[in-house]
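Quick one: co-fold with S-adenosylmethionine.
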Amino acid sequence: MAATTRRPADDPRSGSGGSEPGRARGVAGTAARVHRRLVVNRSRLGHRIGYALRHPGRILPHLRRAGRDAWLRRKYPDHVSYYSAVMASDVRRSPEAAVGSANRERWLALGKMQYDYLVGHGLKSHHRMLEIGCGNLRAGRLFIAHLDPGHYHGIDISPDILLHAHRTVAEYDLRDKLPHLSLTRDLKLEFLPSDHFDVVHAHSVFSHSPIEVIDECLAHVGRVLKPEGFFDFTFDRTEGEEHQVLREDFYYRTETLVALARRHGLHARFMDDWEKLPHKQSKIRVSRSPEPRLS
Ligand SMILES: C[S@@+](CC[C@H](N)C(=O)[O-])C[C@H]1O[C@@H](n2cnc3c(N)ncnc32)[C@H](O)[C@@H]1O
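Sure, here it is.
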């Protein structure tokens, strides 16, 4: 039985196609539909039955996914190992789909959307960037091309997707940019220097993360950020009950994440301009300074 009414724009696992560039959220439906999407609890049985009745074609794929995930959860009780195993399974099917794009065209478009947004917010070639959950460099390839050699650092928990990140570097002839690509098991960022990055970026990572993982990241990201730098992350927003589906998709209230950032001494703000883009996740910017500014 399908458990979700909608999938994030860059999450493939439901096979529903979601909402990608060209299908803007405002165009997709009325304010009432947007409101329903924001308050629905996808883990509730009533919702799941209703969804299955409305989308019978999605029942079988969802059952397959639920079965696989149940088996992986038993085998890998901790979240990072579990999610890394989910990624390994998805990457075998398709690396584009594993990071949430139904095909190459959408992979390119989602990467460009992330890139354009940060360049619009002042990302220049001399800046240093850390991308958490870099995947197969859907956006990373554009950041790497834009930044000076050695200024991009991507980290990910999935060795399988990082091998595809290497392929992206070769395919787009980015070798001379010397990007750093590191495997990590946690978000303590211990191996990275202090006061170093102008921009830290995590797109569609916290949408797959339990609160402990986000907490760990927010506890440590301030150390690696420059005083005027910022950390942008997307998340699946709910204005109703916080919930998760299959330990793959997590829905948080904005105030939960803002409060968490504040507990770690960081400033946080909801990025309204991101909401205008054709992407169903929302974005929060956290920073050490109340008014972060790239220079
Ligand atoms: C949906 S993909 C998005 C990849 C990339 N940010 C993009 O937009 O193309 C999520 C990525 O985050 C990685 N990931 C998930 N949890 C993570 C964590 N706790 N730390 C680092 N990477 C993580 C996954 O392995 C996967 O590559």
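If it helps, The beta strands are 129-132, 152-156, 180-183, 197-202, 225-237, 243-245, 249-252, 267-270, 282-287.
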